[in-house]
């Protein structure tokens, strides 16, 4: 796999997205490889807790805008199905998943962190849902999963302004569950993962499932609604124009 690396430390898996030149932006290839890697992790009895992180200065700077700019409505739909399928694999993986957010977690990157069970932020992490700026809405669950962590006013503030939330604020408002020094991010997250991994495997999986069940029905309905609203964004020229203007500036 060209964009994903998985290493195992005792009974903890560390999955790293390795596309640092594009700030680990999620294109179709990265999403497919992420899905395959998650399937393997699920089958690997050694892994009792999984950490997801990014290589370089970003966790994930969002969906790949250069790929999205060329999508028509049908391709956007396919992309949505792919993304939702992969993100669901994280949410339903029996082993808990911890996002170790090492830098930018923007758009689809913030949404990737949100579908992990626990989010640990490095002090230099930055979270945002900037999609409105490129003519779309968060389409990988951000409009639904953010509300499970922060209040509705804060969700609207993030989604409507696209503004960036720095790690200390993210921790203060419950968007992140831990705040650690950048150089200790992996070490501290592995220590947390080992605490989880030391408990009986079936009890941990059952506890994760039970907590998920407290909100999964409402979440699944919300995700369907988000997808239909998202796809409608592609029925005008707004996203294409806004994405092209982002690409021109870069
Ligand atoms: N896509 C593609 N390339 C990206 C990228 C992205 N999201 N983010 C960064 N890059 C690329 C840059 O174009 C640049 O490439 P080169 O010019 O070197 O070839 C390289 O990464 C380094 O970026 P910068 O030079 O811009 O680095 P800086 O440190 O100056 O700035 C930045 C870092 C993160 C502030 C900046 O790169 C930035 O603003 N990036 C875009 C962030 C963003 O808007 N992200 C949200 C994308 S929208 C869907 C569901 C969900 C989504 C889509 C569809 N469906 C349901 C179908 C999700 C949408 C999003 O995530």
Explain this structure:
It is a single chain. The chain has eleven helices and ten strands. It is an alpha/beta fold. It has a single domain (4-183), classed as 2-enoyl-CoA Hydratase, Chain A, domain 1 (Alpha-Beta Complex). A six-stranded mixed sheet has the order 1-2-3-5-7-10. It has a four-stranded mixed sheet with strand order 4-6-8-9. Strand 2, helix 1 (28-43) and strand 3 form a beta-alpha-beta unit. Helix 1 packs parallel to helix 3 (73-92). The protein starts with a strand and ends with a helix. 42% of the residues are buried. The chain binds 4-(N,N-dimethylamino)cinnamoyl-COA (DAK).
Topology:
Blueprint: E1 4-9, E2 12-17, H1 28-43, E3 49-54, E4 58-60, H2 65-68, H3 73-92, E5 97-101, E6 104-106, H4 108-114, E7 118-122, E8 126-128, H5 142-145, H6 152-161, E9 165-166, H7 167-173, E10 178-180, H8 185-197, H9 201-213, H10 216-233, H11 238-249
Parallel strand pairs: 2-3, 3-5, 4-6, 5-7, 6-8, 7-10
Antiparallel strand pairs: 1-2, 8-9
Bound molecules: 4-(N,N-dimethylamino)cinnamoyl-COA.
Q: How many distinct domains?
A: 1
Radius of gyration: 17 Å
The count of helical stretches stands at 11
Unreliable residue runs = none
| Shape call | globular
Question: What ligand species are in this complex?
Answer: 4-(N,N-dimethylamino)cinnamoyl-COA
The main sheet comes to: 6 strands, mixed
Please give the number of β-strands: 10
Give the proportion of residues in helices. Answer: 40-55%
Return the CATH class. Alpha Beta
Q: What would you give as the CATH superfamily?
A: 2-enoyl-CoA Hydratase, Chain A, domain 1
CATH architecture: Alpha-Beta Complex
Going by helix content, strand content and strand pairing, the class is alpha/beta
Spatial gap, N to C terminus: 27 Å
